[in-house]
Design a protein that fits this description.
D-Maltodextrin-Binding Protein, domain 2; alpha+beta; Arc Repressor Mutant, subunit A; 40% helix; elongated; single chain; 9 helices
Length: 299
């Protein structure tokens, strides 16, 4: 049985669209429809119910889908094991990274990995919303915070403190805050994710907790936008030190409230299962651990 037909079947099941799946695989919709019909003829089973408005998988298709996923995963593992035996790291690496980490931190590290291992092919999704591992066909995600789903495989690659920071231009026109309570008098740049605006910033000093509700005239669901606003002198932001490490080193921003502690963040690499823990993923884990340590050194 043609493995490309099986791959197409899985893509259609995940996306619910023959046209979208054909585009992902570089096929015409007509060729994809023909391949699906060929697979159904070989199985003598209807895998999808089709109408002009809807494509829905049948119960037989759902059962067969489980076996297809296992078969394709086994083939991928076999290819990975051959590469390992030959001392190569090659194949597809499907990676999802949050906006700041992806655009400003991890991107050059990925370039370095691909220059070192030219057999790698990278598929990169950048965004703060955690990808659907199966629908988006993601092998590994890099995110702040330990995953809640214990069935996933997670590697912690760094522990990072959060800091309050602003551009020198902003501080020239506004008083520098001396304590967390002073932040109430400042224009704070807010981040929003999943319908929640993060406008309560937590600090501690000598065992005393400071929970400060802040406000400002700018809010975004893209963490990189919040960073850019801060660099441009539009207000004060609260972010991972890793995200702004190059800005701190260049003097583009200054960290504030050095005597106050914040809850550190873990940087995690998350795989949906052990099948995705390939030699390429392990290589990337080790590289990112090293690079994070270098980026944070001395800050």
């Amino acid at each position: 049985m043609n493995t490309s037909d099986l791959t197409l079947f899985v893509r259609i099941a995940d996306s619910g669209s023959i046209t979208a799946s054909a585009e992902q695989l570089g096929m015409s919709p007509a060729a994809a429809s023909a391949a699906l019909k060929r697979l159904e003829a070989q199985l003598d089973t209807q895998l999808f119910l089709r109408s002009t408005r809807q494509l829905r998988i049948t119960s037989e298709g759902e059962r067969y889908l489980l076996y297809c996923r296992k078969a394709l995963a086994a083939l991928d593992e076999g290819r990975a094991s051959l590469n390992t035996l030959e001392g190569k790291i090659a194949g597809e690496l499907r990676l999802s990274v949050s906006s700041d980490l992806g655009r400003n931190i991890v991107l050059p590290w990925l370039d370095e990995a691909m220059d070192t291992h030219p057999g790698l092919r990278l598929h990169l999704d950048v965004g703060d919303t955690l990808s659907d591992f199966y629908l988006d066909r993601v092998d590994v995600a890099i995110r702040y915070g330990e995953p809640e789903d214990s069935s996933m495989v997670a590697f912690q690659v760094a522990t990072v403190k959060r800091v309050v920071f602003a551009a020198p231009s902003y501080l020239m026109e506004n008083d520098t805050p001396e304590c967390p309570e002073d932040l109430r008098q400042h224009n704070c740049l807010l981040y929003r994710m999943g319908g929640r605006t993060y406008n309560t910033w937590d600090f501690s000093k000598q065992g005393k907790q400071h929970k400060i509700h802040v406000q400002g005239n700018r809010e975004s669901n893209d963490a990189d936008i919040v960073r850019r606003w801060a660099v441009a002198g539009k207000g004060i932001a609260f972010k991972s030190l890793l995200d702004i490490s190059s800005d701190v080193r260049s003097g583009s921003v200054l960290t504030l409230l050095p005597d106050y502690q914040t809850k550190p963040l873990g940087v995690w690499m998350i795989c949906p299962s052990r099948k995705q823990v390939t030699p390429a993923v392990l290589m990337l884990r080790d590289l990112i651990r090293k690079k994070c340590a270098e980026a944070l050194s001395g800050l």
